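[Q] Does anyone have a clean structure-token version of this?
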Amino acid sequence: MRSDAPVYWNAYPALLCAGAVAAGVLAGDALAPGGWALAATGAALGAAALAFTGAQAHLVSLRPLGWTGALLLALAALGAGRLHQDRTLAPSHVGHLVADSAASDEGRTVVLEGRVRSAPRRGRRSTRFRLAARRLFAAGDTARADTIRATGTVAVSLRPSAWEAPEEPFPPVAEGDRVRLRGTLRPPPPQRNPAGFDYGTFLRRRGVYATMALYEPAHVAVTGRRRTALERLIAPARHYVERQLARRVPTAEARAVLRALLLGDRSLLRGATEDRFARSGLMHLLAVSGLHVLLVGWLFYQVLRPPLLRMGLRRRAAEWIRTTLTLGALVFYVLLAGAPASAVRATAMAALLMGGTLAQRPTPSLNALGAAAVGLLLWRPAQLFEAGFQLSFAAVGAIVLLAPVMQKGLPRAWQEDPWRSAVAASTITTMAATLGTLPVLLAHFGRVPFAGLVLNLWAIPLTGAALLGGLVAVALGGWAAPLANAAGASADAA
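[A] Here you go.
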């Protein structure tokens, strides 16, 4: 978008569609399913009738308005319907089993069998993962007659007792493993502090309606392994990255930070480290987000161009190959990091922007943002209420809308000087993102760390250098150890 270009909202249909879907999700959260369904259906039919019967006079017709209204109302109904569908639990869902014990801490003791559906997060004293339930045995009785079919996801935590050391460690658990657990099913915990983080709501919005904490290794048994084709690709890659970081990066703190940047796993970060990042307004650098997707995508996109052109390929063929390989690398990186919403959004936007460039039909940033929002909300509508989703879209929207306006206010000498222009662009981007995310930060966290305005000017380039060093160390670790060690040391220094 040019700095002097006004914003015409009818030029961004995908953004309007995203607003309609979001409005439907909000309505579905506030109203009973029958209420919003009846209202949306009636309004859509009324708009369609207006489109069909609208009179035309002096070349002015209400039909386009009617069709637009009908489409937006239909999208709103779709958003509300998806939210209701996500919140409707099957009769065999484990959420029903723990609903009766929601008001007490007793829970329900069972033997639960299922499949590990997420890469386990291993901390210093605990291991956490999500389990796709398959069946359970009531009251711990494993007799076949008492088998109950179970569905749904359970948040499982393996941690030894703080008072007595176990005689043996917990068995190693990996993604795709089939396990048998003996423990107590409980509902997600209630919010303890009105101003604190509501972990229970956080879990429910991700489709997790039951938890289980295990303290005895004897209560955990791995009974087999069945990985999908994608898991067979991702799991070894994650282990390879973990091994190379352990070998090539000198200090434990740098390894923990790079593990967060590359794998989206912050379990090894010390509490003091996370607190320093949070207080300084740099916490977003530790989460795999659009910034990291941008850095990885830019690296691949720039590195691939020279060798492809030297191979004698035509420019258009080289662009197709470069775009395809870059998008493949981005998708693999996002899957490796656990597919957080911000990274998925950034990858979707990158695909739309690069695809538009290939088709010689450039996609406006706001349209790409809207298309990404529609896809993400239809995939998992409850993320509309999450701070990460709101921060991600607020930051990008503010950068697209505010940065060009702020850029216009720069003196001409600053705009013409490349060094001053680069510093000003970085400062303006940070200020625009901070202003855009300020309401979200205040609503969710009650504070805005303005120190990030200054610190981000240095922290973002250093994060890029650390991420680049980590990527090079991992890529070269298997066959060029000296170069990998040097890259790991540079990442540690950054």
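[Q] Thanks! Anything notable?
[A] The chain has a mean pLDDT of 79.
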